[in-house]
C-alpha cells in the first residue's frame, strides 16, 4: 500500500506549503502551535524560509516588510485566538503602509469532506498585491492541516502574476505636463509608493531632464539618493511652503505631509496626485490633476509628454547637453536662451565659455564663435565650437554666417527659435492678429516673424542647414553636425513661442554652493 502513485497521500499542511511555493511566496515569519506547526514544517521542507519569532506582532511586521521589499507578500503564521489578535497590529500597520501581507491562522476543527484545490492562496496573493497593496487573512481549519488527501485530487492554482500595469488618462497626463512646465516653483514629493513601484529610474530621469527639485518622505528616501543636487530635504519646510505645483508620487497628504494644507503650503498650491488607489485621489485636498495608475508607468507617460511638441528650452538644452563634447567652446547670447542655457550646458574647461558678458551685448556671438574657431584650429584641431543663439540675438550679426562659410570654420550654430524677443507668437495667432489691423499697429513689439527659416542663411553660403521641431530631429541633426568637421552648420530649433524659464528663486538648489 502507498506504493501505487495514484494513491499517494499528502497532508493538508503539505498542500498549503506547496500552494505558497506555487504562488512564489518565499518568506514566512511566525510562532508555531497547534495546528499550524505542521504548516511551518512543511513550508520549510519546500525551501521557503521560515523565521520563528517571539511575538506574532513582530512576525507580522517582518512579513509585511518582506512584502514591501520584494513585491511578493510575506506570510505571517499564527495560531488562532491570541496569536491572531497579536498579529492584528501588524495587519493594521501593513494596511496603513499599503504593503502586501498574508496572515495564515489555524482555527479550530471543522468537518470537511475533501480539500481539493486550495483556492484561497491565489486569491490572498492577488488581493494583497493588486490595486493598493495590503494585508490578507487566510483562516485554515485545524482538520485541513492534518487531513490526508490523494495527491491526484490536488490542483494547484497557477502562480498569481505581478499586478498588471495601468497608466493614467492621456489628457490628464498632458495637463499635468503643462502645469509642471509652467510652474514657477515645482516640487516632486517622492513617497514609499514610488519606492514600492520601483520607479527610481523614471523619476530620476524626470528630475534631471526637467531640473525639478524633489523631497522624499521618510521611506521615500533613497529612491533618488539623498545627496542628489536636486534634493531639497535639508530645506523641507521652505520647499513645501514655496511650491506652486507639487507632484505627489505615491505619498498621501496625511499628517506626514501636513494634510496638504496652509500654513505649511501655499493656499493655492496645485497638486498633481499620482496613485494606484482611486479612493486616495482627492483625499484632503482637491488635486489640480489626478493621475490614476502605476507610478512608474505614469512617470514614463510624463516623460514622453514632456518631450511633446513644441519643445521648450529645457527639452532643447537637455538634448544638447547630452551630445556636447567635453572640451568644446560654448558661445551663447540671447535672453532666455543664454540664461537657461547657462544653467544646463556644462563647461569643463576655463576660457571656453563666451557670452553677452558684462555689457549684456547682443550681436557678439558670431564674432566670438569665429574667434574661438580660429584659435581652436591652431591649438587643437578637432575641437568644436557650439554657438547657442536666441532667434533675436542671431539677427544682430547673422550675416557673419557668410564669414564662417568663407573660412569654412567648423562651428555648430544653434538658433533656439521662439519667434521673438523674450517670447513670440505661434503662426496661427500671428495670422489671426494681422486680420485685425496693420502689423505696425497690432503686432506686439517682442514678436519676430513666426516660422522664420534661419537655417537658409547657412545653406545660402554652402553650409548645412537643419529645421527641427522634435527632440528626435534635434538629436539627429546635432549628431550629424558634430560629426562633420568639414562644414559649418546651423540648426534652427523651433520651440514653444511662449516658453519661459522657471522662476529664479530656487534657494534650495543653490544651497550647496553657500
Ligand atoms: P509616504 O508615507 O511615503 O508619504 P504613503 O504610504 O502615504 O507614502 O503613500 C503611498 C501611496 O502609494 C499609497 O496611497 C498607495 O496607494 C500608493 N501606491 C503604492 N504602490 C503604488 C504603485 N505601484 N503605483 C502608484 N501608487 C502606488
Ligand atoms: Mg527668441
Automatic annotation (TrEMBL):
Give every Thiamine pyrophosphate enzyme TPP-binding domain span.
337-493
Alphabetical UniProt keywords: Lyase, Magnesium, Metal-binding, Thiamine pyrophosphate
- Which biological process annotations from GO are given for this protein? carboxylic acid catabolic process
| Catalytic class of the enzyme | lyase
Q: Tell me which Gene3D superfamilies the record gives.
A: 3.40.50.970, TPP-binding domain
> Do you know which PANTHER family this protein is assigned to?
2-HYDROXYACYL-COA LYASE, 2-HYDROXYACYL-COA LYASE 1
Q: What is this protein called?
A: 2-hydroxyacyl-CoA lyase
Annotated organism of origin: Sus scrofa (Pig)
Q: What is the lineage of its organism?
A: Eukaryota, Metazoa, Chordata, Craniata, Vertebrata
